[in-house]
Design goal:
Layout lengths: L3 E5 L5 H10 L4 E4 L8 E6 L4 H10 L3 H9 L4 E4 L1 H6 E4 L10 E6 L10 E9 L4 E9 L4 E5 L4 E6 L2 E7 L2 E4 L10 H10 L2
Parallel strand pairs: 1-2, 1-3, 3-4, 4-12, 5-6
Antiparallel strand pairs: 6-9, 7-8, 10-11, 11-12
Length: 194
């Protein structure tokens, strides 16, 4: 069986990510169980509630196997709550996390649900030939406070990173699955999951 991109389907808006991948001809399916991990070309952790997702990952015995896979180069993309779970340091929190990405993040830093907003973002990865303007949709978004040198900043808003990459890890504060543009999903599939 050929590999596919998994979208963590424990909590959050996983169906929109699957639909976005399918719109560009990429096989993407829900992921819930450890035994499915060898079938994956990569994994998306969607937005939702990061503490809940972390607890559900731990309950299903997925935290340590995923952490080891990511550290060995397994492609992963965290949006919003997913980005929080990837961060090595979550400000003022000791919640369960994968903790594989060299960044410090602050939960809900852009405000509550009523403070949601959209912003034009310039996304650039010169090595991958990516240069595009996209609409970033921020909903209870986390703030990437700082990154180590190993983390490449692909997009910023108000002089703060909102889309970052470190090796096979991609993390963003916004929700590309809610936009009309598949650019970020295509970038993940083509550049990280190849």
């Amino acid at each position: 069986m050929s590999k596919y991109i998994g979208v963590l389907a424990l909590q959050g808006a996983f169906a929109r990510h699957i639909a976005m991948f399918q719109s560009i001809g990429v096989d993407a399916r829900p992921f819930k169980e450890l035994e499915e991990l060898p079938n994956l070309a990569g994994l998306v952790i969607p937005g939702g509630e990061s503490t809940t997702i972390g607890m559900l990952l731990e309950r299903r015995g997925l935290i340590e196997p995923l952490r080891q896979a990511i550290l060995a180069g397994f492609p992963i993309y965290g949006t919003c709550a997913g980005a929080i779970l990837l961060a090595k340091t979550i400000e003022d929190s000791d919640q369960i996390r994968l903790g594989t990405m060299d960044m410090v993040i602050r939960r809900n830093a852009y405000g509550s649900q009523v403070d949601s907003f959209e912003a034009k973002l310039d996304v650039r990865d010169p090595q991958a030939g990516l240069e595009a303007e996209i609409e970033g949709i921020f909903i209870r978004a986390p703030l990437i406070i700082s990154c180590e040198a190993a983390v490449q900043i692909l997009a910023s808003f108000d002089n703060k990173p909102v889309l970052v990459r470190q090796n096979s890890m991609l993390a963003g504060s916004f929700h590309p699955e809610l936009s009309n543009s598949p650019i970020i999903h295509r970038y993940f599939a083509n550049q990280l999951c190849k």
